[in-house]
Amino acid sequence: MELRAGANTEPQAAAFEELVKTYANRDRVVVPTVEAFVQAGRVVSALAVRERMSAVYSPALTNDALIASSCREADVVLVTENTRDFTAIKRQLRGFRFVDSAHLSS
User: Fold this and answer.
1) How far apart are CA 106 and CA 104, in angstroms?
2) What is the C-alpha separation between 68 and 63, in angstroms, rounded?
3) Residues 83, 46, 33, 57: what is their CA dihedral angle, to the nearest 10 degrees?
């Protein structure tokens, strides 16, 4: 959703569609389940209570929690530049794994 929301021109939208198609054709798209939504809600609540991180101040946090719970459910490692939010989420979501894309070799 965030990638598509940022595709504001026709070339960007076409590039997004091509990217998604490539992964979808290989059955490599992770789609959130009901349980992933439940776990994401639990994580956002725990972050608000335990770490004073509120989705009100960071709306992307809710999306990040859903991404994390979906990745955990699918048993995949998330590659991201957003280490701050995902480090906090990892403290509340046992079994979630991610790596900082900056640490991957090119």
Assistant:
1) 6
2) 9
3) -60
At position 9, the amino acid (one-letter code) is T
pTM, 2 dp:
0.85
Query: DSSP secondary-structure letter at 81?
Result: S
Please state the domain extents for the chain: 1-30, 33-106
Return the DSSP state at 56. Answer: T
Q: Collapsing DSSP states into helix, strand and coil, what is residue 100?
A: strand
Give the three-state DSSP class for 58.
coil
The pair of three-digit structure tokens given for residue 18, joined into one six-digit string: 């091509």
Structure tokens of 47?
């972050």
How much is the mean pLDDT over the chain?
92
